[in-house]
Amino acid sequence: MTRQTLTMAMTAAGLAGIALPAAAQDICGGAGANGQWIGGSEAASDVSVSDNYMEQMALVLMGNEYVALFNVSAPTDVRVEAAGRGGGDPVIDLRDAGGTIVLSDDDSGGGGASRGEMTLNPGTYCLSMASYDGSPMTGFVRVGRTEQEALTEGTSMPPVSPPETPGDFTGGGGGCSAVSNYLADGGPIDGSLDMGASVTASVDQVDAWGFSLGTAQAITITAENPSADPLVTLYDGSGNYLGENDDFDGLNSRLDMTSPLPAGDYCIEMVALSDTSLPITVTVSGFDPAAQLASLYERGEAAPPMDGSYPITNMGALGNRVRQDLQTTDVTTWMSFDIDAPGLVVVEAISNGIGDPIMVLYDDFGRLVAENDDYGGDLDPLIAARVLPGSYLVGVRQLNEGETGLVRMLFERYMPAQ
């Protein structure tokens, strides 16, 4: 296999990449500030005229993401892909020059790899790759035209066709190619979504839902039934891809369109990755930034503020050995502790075989220090991390939805030898 461009990029502190970093700080709304030109330089990263695909290998550590930049000089059918090594599970987001996400994917490349294809207009684009579960991962990122060699096999799922007539949601069946099912009991949504609108049906019954916005509005779409494992994809009335989500909260899906969508018609394509006969509850509501943050805190995907506005148990200065018993649920329980000198902290969550806890550790700036789910051949997590003076947050929750269990927390602090 010939590779036109192969560069190594490291996102961990202290590791330098070969590809040239982006000079401008506002590329893709700031998302590309630390990105690497996938062709090795800006001039060599034009996918419209490249003789072959462009590829980089990247090491992603500590919950960070790797960003590859490329240019499009003429309308071009582009394929973007990411494949992990050794069982790595990458997720990708493609942003335009303004920072709007125009494509997101998790597993469309097959075997955990990510893949997406779409026609891109002239401009600069940023392709970010992150590890699905935040674990360290080495992966390949590839950008090429659709006629050039693919990195991934792709799934067996047929591509989604756009509506035959822009804005025409009057057919029956066939996904977003023909939609007759409108939310809110058969009527178009009027743009006031504060109270939300929900419907429930299996994918066998309804494989797409249409709705209308009377005014520009940011929205949230959720699809709930983990046994069905729903995947939602959003298109506008002209069949343009706007975004998708698979696993946001466990196996449930949630798609946040944080920038207001223009007034008009929209289509939600539904796929059930596990069982197409099971009912899925689909909800469209107005996007609520505060609710989004609270949801991130509840899942342990972001550290809550330590200003007293969110419930955190303060343990004070951490001793050499501290034990704490917690009754845990699928909502993260947060604890904080203080460190007055450099050293090593080991934290264990012991369930004695009841439940499946998962644990995260953040510093007081909200940076993820470490996370763990299963350690030592069982379902109990363990984190060992070097720490500096400051405050730290530990979050613990049950991995499975609706699960509860008593967890015994063990904190041990080790000081360097003098």
From TrEMBL:
It comes from the Bacteria. Residues 149-173 are annotated as: Disordered. Keywords: Signal. Residues 1-24 form the signal peptide. This is ABC transporter substrate-binding protein. It comes from Flavimaricola marinus.
